[in-house]
């Protein structure tokens, strides 16, 4: 069996090495002729799996994406051609929760806010949005939920987008969709942007095309700019460079890039392929991961916002990502290079807080 995988997918050798001849390459450089004799294709979000890529793929029987988002996969084409497909729902939801928590704490420092006095709206309340909502509640924030699909089951628990956009902080966690009543392409469009006040903060850790970046730049260049946190950008790997100086925290689509999240992503495809081939799984995600650099911290004072910020930074320093992004911005290929050489980042759950209570656990730490 021949397996072609994105070179930025960890643990492929460990998980598939016994079954397959493994070839890896850069996800953006995969070509139709490379797929001519491939049985299994494993990708990340940057490979468009479409008619053109699969034109010569005569032997392909399985496509897996080690990601949550599937907007890069023509799933109808795979179904038509009888090619099995698996994604990795939820694999990096904890990492996105960590990223947004770190961002909220930086925003609070920047604006001298006590987060417990503020309201956070979560737009898209699935795997990642729910993680964000739980952490915000643990910080004592009031949380508004906006998700028209989930609202069908429980209308009183959700608000409309217009209401969500009145919150102090609005964090977006929707898939990229281009069709239907609730399509998310440019969900944050010029008119929505015009309706916001300069006190408000927006976070995008889902897909760049969900925000109209040109309209945001126009707003930022005016007299009442917003506070922005952007992990994702319209037209990646290109970035609207003039927008970056007007963004508080900027990063190259790495919100989900914890080592645990990436391991779970590859593992989800291993599990799916084992099921398909009716082979017994011999490894678990935990067996793949190294010990974390810091195992435990003994708390001697109660958790407050300042202490939480210091503990989060011990595990994940979001400002490091922001500095690296600004330093590299403009260099050819900088976006993909930062992602390829992203340092090993562990989840908050890799750190045990001794003498801490329920709040620490709700924030994502091990207690
Ligand atoms: N930046 C990153 O590294 C990163 C990491 C993981 C996921 N993502 C992106 O985030 C997206 C969300 O991930 P998830 O795991 O939470 O997905 P999910 O499918 O679990 O949840 C998405 C939620 O959005 C809701 N939704 C759809 N359209 C909506 C709309 N118009 N308004 C409000 N809600 C809407 C859905 O009903 C669903 O509950 C993914 O599709 C992926 O594109 C990015
Ligand atoms: O949808 C996701 O899961 C993430 O956006 C994605 O995994 C980001 O990483 P990439 O696949 O682009 O390496």
What features would you highlight for this structure?
Ribosomal Protein S8, Chain: A, domain 1, six-stranded parallel beta sheet, 367 residues, Rossmann fold, 33% helix, binds nicotinamide-adenine-dinucleotide, five-stranded parallel beta sheet, binds 4-phospho-D-erythronate
Summarize the structure.
The protein is of the alpha/beta class. 33% of the residues lie in helices and 14% in strands.
Produce the secondary structure layout.
Layout: E1 2-6, H1 12-16, E2 21-25, E3 40-43, E4 62-65, H2 75-80, E5 84-86, H3 93-111, E6 119-123, H4 127-138, E7 142-146, H5 148-151, H6 161-164, E8 169-172, H7 190-194, E9 201-204, H8 213-221, E10 227-230, E11 249-250, H9 259-277, H10 285-288, E12 296-298, H11 305-315, H12 318-328, H13 334-340, E13 352-354, H14 358-363
Parallel strand pairs: 1-2, 1-3, 3-4, 4-5, 6-7, 6-8, 8-9, 9-10, 10-11, 12-13
């Amino acid at each position: 069996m021949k397996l072609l995988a994105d070179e930025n997918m960890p643990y492929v050798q460990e998980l598939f090495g016994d079954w397959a001849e493994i070839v890896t390459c850069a996800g953006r450089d995969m070509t139709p002729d490379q797929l001519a004799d491939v049985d299994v294709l494993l990708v990340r979000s940057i490979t468009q799996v479409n008619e053109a890529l699969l034109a010569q793929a005569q032997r392909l029987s399985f496509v897996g994406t080690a990601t949550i988002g599937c907007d890069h996969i023509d799933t109808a084409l795979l179904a038509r051609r009888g090619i099995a497909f698996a994604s990795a729902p939820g694999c990096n939801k904890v990492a996105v929760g960590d990223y947004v928590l770190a961002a909220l704490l930086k925003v609070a420092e920047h604006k001298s806010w006590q987060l417990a006095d503020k309201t956070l709206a979560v737009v898209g309340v699935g795997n990642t949005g729910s993680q964000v909502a739980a952490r915000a509640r643990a910080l004592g924030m009031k949380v508004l939920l906006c998700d028209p699909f989930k609202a069908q089951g429980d209308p009183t628990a959700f608000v409309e987008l217009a209401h969500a956009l009145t919150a102090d902080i609005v964090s977006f966690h929707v898939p990229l969709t281009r069709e239907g009543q609730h399509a998310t392409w440019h969900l944050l469009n010029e008119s929505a942007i015009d309706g916001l006040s300069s006190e408000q903060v927006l976070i995008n850790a889902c897909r760049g095309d969900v925000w109209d970046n040109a309209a945001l730049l126009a707003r930022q260049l005016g007299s009442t700019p917003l506070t922005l946190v952007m992990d994702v950008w319209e037209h990646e790997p290109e970035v609207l460079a003039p927008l970056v100086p007007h963004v508080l925290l900027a990063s190259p689509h790495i919100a989900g890039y914890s080592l645990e999240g990436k391991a779970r992503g590859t593992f989800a495809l291993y599990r799916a392929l084992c099921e398909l081939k009716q082979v017994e799984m011999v490894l678990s995600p935990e067996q793949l991961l190294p010990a974390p650099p810091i195992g435990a911290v003994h708390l001697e004072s109660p958790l407050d916002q300042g202490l939480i910020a210091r503990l989060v930074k011990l595990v994940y320093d979001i400002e490091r990502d922001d500095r690296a992004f600004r330093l590299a911005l403009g260099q050819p290929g900088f976006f993909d290079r930062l992602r390829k050489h992203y340092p090993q980042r562990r989840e908050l759950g890799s750190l045990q807080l001794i003498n801490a209570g329920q709040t620490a656990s709700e924030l994502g730490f091990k207690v």
